[in-house]
Every structure is written in structure tokens, then in C-alpha cells.
Amino acid sequence: MSSDRATAEPASAPPPQQGSGEDEDEAYAKHKKVYPREVHGIFASLRTLGVAVLLGLYYGVAWLPWEGHQAVLLDLPARKFYIFGLTFWPQDFFYFAWLLIIAALALFYVTALAGRLWCGYACPQTVWTEIFLWIERKVEGSRNQQIKRDKSDITAAKFRVKATKHFIWLAFSLFTGFTFVGYFTPIRELAVSFVNWNLGPWETFWIFFYGFATYGNAGWMREQVCIYMCPYARFQAAMFDKDTLVIAYDEERGEPRGSRKKASDPRQSGLGDCVDCTLCVQVCPTGIDIRDGLQYECIGCAACIDVCDQVMDKMGYEKGLVRYTTEHAMAGIHTDIVRPRTIMYTILLAALAIGLIYAIGQRIPLELDILRDRNSLYRKTSEGLVENVYILKVVNMDEQAHRYSLEVSGLEGLELIMSNPVIKASGGEVLSVPVSLRVDPIVLERTANEIEFTISADDNAELRRTETARFLGPAMAR
Hints:
By secondary structure, this protein is an alpha+beta fold. The chain has 15 helices and 16 strands. Strands 8, 9, 10, 12 and 14 form a five-stranded antiparallel beta sheet that branches.
């Protein structure tokens, strides 16, 4: 059994002396690199599966065609956002805000139920860090080999290994940045431009910016992002209760800890089940000791559970010395999954999700904006009629071309005058349609009168939009 302790948490380090000036404040402690040990087990397999699925979606969906366009494309210059079979416009931004609210509530819900499950298995920082650690192990070797190499003097072999690792990291990071930009610029066109080195300035900037951000966060900063930069770790305690699933060390069963021979009876030696191998510390990606209790640095990845269960197997002890559990379960109290907090989150999430699906299903891909002529409030024609001039902004948010009819109502005898009575817009086209309205002043009861413009597609009765406007004129005495 290895007795090598994690570099980030040396057990033999003496406590700082008051007034010594060294490590008086953890915020100013010098960073010590964490070398997570490779671990295998059910939770490690689940984490690997999560990484494969999430990165597969990230890198794969960008190349997926859909009905003549990229499946997911946020086309900012054209102000159109393709999400598979749906096309959204800036006017639909509130759907995105709605989705963000659902995502935030879902995160709170998962946290209330299962603690930092998101952090350990799905957070982008965790996902990309896992890939970078995998690359590092393939190039530099095991944890002990990495520690030994970092402590050794610079040699040609050491430089070659380090350079190879960073070259692969940088290449993978740039590919990540390239894929990110590919969600805003059609990725096939972007690939051709990249090969011909004909990228635009903004595309080049964002590829390198996002690439180096990935390289810095996943390659260099790693656990520091989770510990110091991520706000989620700071306020997660407000969403925890004694029924929240957390990773915990069974202190009553494990203490007092100590090394022993496999064949010995720990009870006769006055020992608990913990053999003090420190493997739970060595596999931790944030370098903490789970035996010190629940800590905000714990990301819930369960690496310590996998390795501890392996040690318990080898020693012939029962698994679960470190396990997923709740504070109530540790105290011998029944854990309630269904409780007011989870009920509230379930109702809110269901209502918001159903509402969003219904709203998108009932969405009308047609927009009508009415702008008044600001040069004059109104004018009188030679026939004595009062005239108002408007500019109608017609946005065909559908991918198909449509021919529209325009109607106006709200005043008796209201006359609609258009230079071109045919309103025809191709898919995604924005039209500016000037119109004039005339009416006999005798029907005007006030200076500002409410009217309605109604535009409808000739080939689809469901494409219909009505907007109100004001018709101005002199109020006629009755």
C-alpha cells in the first residue's frame, strides 16, 4: 500500500507560527501543484462517460447539417439563430432568458438533491480538466513519475516531454476555440478559411482567445478555478440541507486511523478501518483530505470513493468508509428526498418547462413594427381628409417566402393607401412598407385615436399578427 501523500496536502507540515509571516492567511499561500492519481471504479467510469458524451456533443453538433444549414448556428451578422429545426431572431431573446432561468433552477434543484453533482461530472472546467489530465498522464506518466520529473533538473529528455505535452495541450485548445467560433460562423466555411489562412480578424481573435482560455484554465489553473474563481462553491451551502447527498468519511468507523498488516484484527490494535494510506487525498483533483469533513473545495467527483472501496476490498473490509450519503443518514436519521424544497423546485421547473415548450409551439414567425412619420403629426389633404403616414417593418421570421395582406381598423371609413398593395417577403427578409391612412375628420372624437394594423399570410392563416397604433388629428366638437 502506497504511503505517498498528496503534494497539495503534506500531513507533516507544521502549523504556521503566529507572527512568523509565513502562510498567515491562506489567501496568500503559495500555490502547490496538485498531482491527482489515476483512479478506476464505477464513478470514474461514469465521469469518463460524461466527458465523452459532453465533448462529443460540443465538437460534433457544430458539424451536423440540418435542412440546408448548420444544426446549431448563431448567425450574428444575419441576426438569425438556428437551433435544429427552429429559427430565432433577436425579438425572441426572451426565450433565451426563459431558458437560462430554467437552467439556474435546475442547477439549484440538483444541488439540493445531490450536492455538487454538476461540478464533479458536467461542469466545463471539470470536463476539460479531465481531458488535459488524461493527456498529461499519457505523455508524462503516472503521478509519481510526474512528481519525480518536476523535482529533477532540466535535461533534454525532460524538456522534450514537457514540450510535447504543451504542444498537444495547445493544439487541443485551439481546436476547442475553433469549434467555439464554428457555432457563430458556419464551421465548414471556417475550416476552409482556416486551411487557407484567410480568417477574418474577429474570427482569429476569438479562436485564439478561447483557445488560450481553455489552455490556461484546464492546463495551468485547474483546481484554482474551482477553489478561488467559481462563485458556485461559495454559495452552495445555502442550498444544502441535512438531506442533501454529499461525499462523507465515516469517522466513527474509520477512526482511529493507522497502518496495519492485512491479516491483523484492527479492533485488537485499537484501530478503525482507515489504514491511513492517503490514497483518497492523492486522487482528489482539488487536493483536499475528505477525512477532514465536508469542505467547499470538494467538487463531488467521487474519486475518493472509488479508491477507498478498492483499499477496503484488498483489506477484506466492508466498502463505504467514504461514500455518498447525507448528514441525516450519518446520524442514523431517515433521509427525506421528498421535502418542501424539492417539491417547490419540481413544481417550478415543470411549470417553466411546460410554459417554454408551449410558448415556442405557439410562436408566430412573423413580426410587425409600426413607426410613425416624425416629420408631421398629421396633415390635411385637398379633399379635407386627415392623413397619417407610417412605416411598417415586416419581418418574415419563417424560412419560407410568403405573400401578405394588410388590413386596418379602428375608425369608421378609414382608408388604407399603399404604393404597392402586394407585400411579399422571402424567408428571413425584413421589409419596410410605407403606408398612409386617411379618414374624414368628422369621425375623430379625440386627438389620439387607437387603430389596429393586421397583417396575415395569404397561404397560411396561422401567420397573422395584429399591432395597435395611434391615429392623430384634430378632435371634432360634437
